[in-house]
Write a structure and sequence with these properties.
The complex is a heterotrimer of chains A (114), B (174) and C (94).
Chain A (H helix, E strand, L loop, with lengths): L1 H26 L3 H31 L2 H31 L12 H7 L1
Helix pairs in contact in A: 1-2, 2-3
Chain B lengths: L5 H19 L4 H22 L10 H31 L8 E7 L4 H13 L3 E8 L5 E7 L7 H20 L1
Antiparallel strand pairs in B: 1-3, 2-3
Chain C lengths: L2 H22 L3 H26 L3 H24 L14
Classes of the chains: A mainly alpha (114), B alpha+beta (174), C mainly alpha (94).
């Protein structure tokens, strides 16, 4: 019973962070801030939810294959996500998508664009 | 493109074989032999794209345990703090942000160390690495999109963004 | 046991909410990032549903989905970058 409560609590924490990321993705004012908000989903959301599922798979189901697969899923998202995030923010900047409001500082434009 | 060495092929083969066992998860003799037969040509073909340096480099115990300590200790603390901060910003109406792109200096010399630091910065919410550039003196600079620009001074911004991460990674890659 | 399927439904609902940004995002980067978020959330929902139903096939699907999610992101990023990976300070960049 305690294992169930711990697993549910971890998944609920992950759900809260995923909700925060989704709200940020929907409500943030410009493209780059939306990307920043969406990092919440792919780090803390999947980490907490995967940890809860792992606790349940190890202590209640006693299934080694399910536990290893859940661990590999979390690890895979953690390894591959920053690479894609880096590629798409650089592509967006190079393709010329600028926010409507001027940024606070923009060293990249100052060094490379003109 | 240089020819693949034997340790690189062996490391790629072990990785492919582990993935086969993971997806299959039955330990009959025929299936194990079939996995070996499939993953050997894959390792022979793709080892030279996959591993460029010494394959057993990471098995040194000091480096290994420093890396484990970094990714499970220091990085996790920074990750949770940045996530709570970002969630507060999102639930607080998405209004208290002032985004900008700052430029910070990096002292790590190794290629893998720089890549690991860039990925660690990208994974903490609030900062995304945009580009890595090298100036004429050979000094490396990161361009970082930061959602709440506190200072545009390169040294102070670098200490605020990557201070602890770089001190943790220097134990692995120096 | 049935709380897992409730959580899975919540995660899938969040993925559907991300599709709003896919529909009305002004730039292709917005659409791609929101689509990637939906992919990750559906992966979590599949993991939870596999624990609920006790069948391992959903875990395999979630694993492949988590692995393939990177490829389209890299593809769109490279397309937006006009096929150039390295920044050369001497060449003419836009």
């Amino acid at each position: 019973m305690l294992i169930r409560i711990i697993a549910d609590l971890l998944i609920a924490i992950g759900l809260v962070f995923a909700l925060a990321g989704t709200k940020g993705t929907l409500k943030m004012p410009d493209t780059y801030s939306r990307m920043q908000a969406s990092t919440c989903i792919s780090t803390m959301g999947i980490l907490c939810a995967g940890l809860g599922a792992l606790v349940y798979a190890v202590f209640t189901m006693h299934s080694a294959s399910a536990a290893i697969k859940i661990g590999v899923i979390v690890l895979m998202v953690f390894v591959t996500n920053p690479v894609g995030s880096h590629a798409i923010i650089k592509g967006a900047y190079r393709a010329g998508f600028r926010p409507e409001k001027r940024m606070e500082v923009d060293e990249f434009r100052r060094d490379f664009d003109e | 493109m240089q020819k693949a060495k034997f340790p690189a092929i062996a490391a790629t083969f072990v990785l492919c074989y582990a993935f086969w066992i993971l997806l299959d998860f039955s330990f009959k003799v025929e299936e194990l032999i079939a996995g070996a037969v499939v993953s050997l040509p894959v390792a022979l073909f793709s080892a030279r794209f996959f591993i460029h340096e010494n394959a057993g480099w990471f098995l040194h115990p000091g480096r290994f345990f420093s890396a484990i300590f970094f990714w499970c200790g220091t990085f996790m603390v920074e990750l949770v703090k940045a996530n709570v901060d970002m969630a507060k910003r999102c639930f607080g109406g998405c209004k208290n942000i002032n985004p900008g792109i700052v430029k910070i200096p990096v002292d790590l010399r190794s290629d893998y160390g720089q890549a690991a630091l860039a990925n660690a910065i990208t994974m903490t919410p609030g900062t995304i690495t945009l580009d890595i550039a090298e100036d004429k003196d050979g000094k490396t600079w990161y361009y970082i999109h930061w959602i709440d620009v506190a200072t545009a001074e390169p040294e102070a911004a670098g200490e605020a963004i990557k201070g602890r991460l770089e001190r943790g990674l220097r134990r692995v890659w120096e | 046991m049935s709380d897992f399927v409730i959580f899975a439904i919540f995660f899938a609902a969040l993925a559907v909410l991300n599709l709003i940004r896919v529909a009305l995002g002004p730039t292709p980067a917005d659409r791609q990032v929101a689509g990637d978020n939906a992919d990750i959330l559906i992966t979590v929902a599949l993991v939870l549903f596999s624990l609920y139903s006790g069948r391992a096939i959903y875990l395999d699907i979630a694993l492949i989905s988590a692995m393939l999610g990177i490829i389209d992101t890299m593809l769109v990023g490279r397309y937006l970058d006009r096929g150039r990976w390295h920044y050369d300070a001497d060449s003419d960049h836009r």
